Zinc finger homeodomain protein 1
Amino acid sequence: MGLQQGLKKAYANGSVTPTPRSGPKEKVVRYKECMRNHAANIGGYAVDGCTEFMASGAEGTPGAFVCAACNCHRSFHKRVVESDTETDSCDCSSITTASR
């Protein structure tokens, strides 16, 4: 078991992983709507309408990668990385311009 695997905290919709270079900040990875094209084999485009990944099994089991709602693998769902907004936000109003 690697260092990164031991640091992850399990959630129903993703995991929290501390970023190694930035110190105590954590990034939350969530999986949103399913992007799988179910009509690709006939040349069309059709998605199933699943709006959020829900693991069908416990963390550490193969079912943790399969969505309970649409039965697709987690990799078909849109990956959204959310981070701590207080430390990552920039107060752009404080930027000064150089005077001539």
About this structure: The longest helix spans residues 3-7. The chain is about 10% helix and 25% strand.
